[in-house]
Amino acid sequence: MIEMFDERIVATGRLPLFGFFVAFLVTFVLTRVNVRLIRADARWWFRNVTAGDVHIHHVVFGVVLMLAGGIGSLAVPDAYTGLTVAAAVVFGMGSALVLDEFALILHLSDVYWTEKGRASVDAVFVAIAVTGLLLLGIRPLGYEGIAPDPGTGILTRVYVVSLVVNLVFAVVTLLKGKIWTGLIGLFVPALLIVGAIRVARPGSPWSRWRYGPDSRRYQRAVRRERQFRRPLIRGKIWVQEFIAGRHDLIPPELLQRRAGAAERARRRGLVRAERRATAHAARKAAARAERRAERRAARRAARRAAARAGAARAEDGAARADERGSRRGVAARIPPRVPSRAASRMRARAAARRARPREEFLPGFRPGGRLPPADPAPLGETATPKPDDPP
Question: Which intervals carry biased composition (Low complexity) (predicted)?
Answer without folding.
Answer: 331-343, 362-372
